Amino acid sequence: MVNGCCWLNHNDGPQSRRFIEIVRENPCIKGWFSGHFHLSHDYEDSMSLPEGNNRGACVFAQTAVMTARSTRDGRRQSRMIRGNKDGFEVCTVNHAKGGEVRVDAKCSYAGDTTVAEIQFDLETTWAEAGFRAYTPQEEDGCYIENAGGVLNEDENWDENTVCWWHMADGVVLGVHDGMVIEYDPTTLAPLGMVVSKDELLGRKVAVIDSGLKQEQCDVFEDGAECVDQSSREQALILPLPLPVFPTPTPNPYPYP
Asked: How many structural domains is the chain composed of?
């Protein structure tokens, strides 16, 4: 659930990455709430506690919607933060039940860290509810080496394929649920879709070098386009299959 919002997830990397860097550098930031998904708080994936994947001292929480016209799972909720002498509580207000309040997590301050504990019984996961997401892990066995060329030479990727890799410039891409997804390179949280299911089905996926050297990247006079570029630039392509031509039939009446 370490996502940003629509603006952060779909903006350029260096600019949007600055927000998560601010969270890491400032342990006084304790909560990040996002309503990007229009889903309720009743899933175990709806909240990420400040542990692992370099998330600082911040609780990342999904924030639902209040009206029936904009909910994706039929539930109408909003978040409420309730402070106390030790820290704060993250609560859910259920608008379908007259504003009933549920305590979701208790968070206490411990120096530069935040100790957080979930307080309610989770009903299901997003995957069980049909909203599947995959977050790469360093030792999950799904990492593939990107040496360039076709990545799935001996197989076709489908809805059961799970893998991820780094591009030369540090961008993290992966395959999950039949799609190619981009992930944040520092938190490995999913950012957005790169290749859709219908585009990927039955296709080979290749990585090629652009041939553009860093010193040649002078798109603008001030070099702004190249500030964070590595010495290699790569592109992800889906090569078209080679056409198969029928064998010509010999002419039974050749000219003399």
From this structure: 2
> How many Cβ atoms from other residues are within 10 Å of residue 238's Cβ?
13
Asked whether the CA dihedral 99, 100, 106, 109 is positive or negative, the reply is positive
What single letter denotes the amino acid at residue 124? T
In terms of domains, do 168 and 112 share one? no
Residue 41 lies in a domain: yes
CB 48 within 8 A of CB 105: no
pLDDT by residue for the chain (256 residues), tens only, comes to: 565 555 565 556 676 678 888 888 999 999 988 877 778 888 777 888 887 667 788 898 888 989 888 887 888 999 999 999 999 999 999 999 999 999 999 999 988 888 888 887 766 555 555 555 667 777 777 888 887 889 988 888 888 888 999 988 888 899 988 888 888 787 777 777 788 888 888 889 999 886 655 455 544 444 444 545 555 678 888 887 656 667 666 666 666 5
pTM confidence score: 0.56
Domain that holds residue 15: 6-118
Residue 57 within any structural domain of the chain:
yes
